[in-house]
Amino acid sequence: MPFNEGSELHLFVDASRVAYSACVFVRTVLEAGTSVSLIRAKTRVAPLKPLTIPRLELMACCIGARLVNSIRDALNLPNIKVTFWSDSEVEPWWIKEHGDRSVFVTNRVQEIRQLTQFQLWRHVLGVLNVADMLSKGVLLAGCWIPGGGRAPHG
Length: 154
What we know:
Layout: E1 8-15, E2 19-30, E3 33-45, H1 53-74, E4 81-86, H2 90-97, H3 103-115, E5 121-123, H4 132-136
Parallel strand pairs: 1-4, 4-5
Antiparallel strand pairs: 1-2, 2-3
Helix pairs in contact: 1-3
């Protein structure tokens, strides 16, 4: 996994009724082309007490913010450029505008704002959000493997 002064981290978050997740990729431009590698991912089972999807997505943002900071610390890259991606428009708005004023949202928004810069949160289309696979699951037969092929069936 190559790093250079132009390397960037990209965090993707997502949630479903059953799980919420975050994954961090490093993107590095090299002479031979661009390298993108998964660094770390985390998925958690949704709580038994039903929560709305926006609240679960906010929980994904929390674990994502923690992941990015642990990676920065572990790799000693405090100034690496980071972009945070969510396919929802609710939690980035909460993060930028301080939430919906409930204790649940306010506490999580405070943590996210302490760990990230709210201006770095962006929207990504759901079909392009790679964290979708973590929160909703995917069959192995539908996965791409290195080299451009698909995973074998059965």
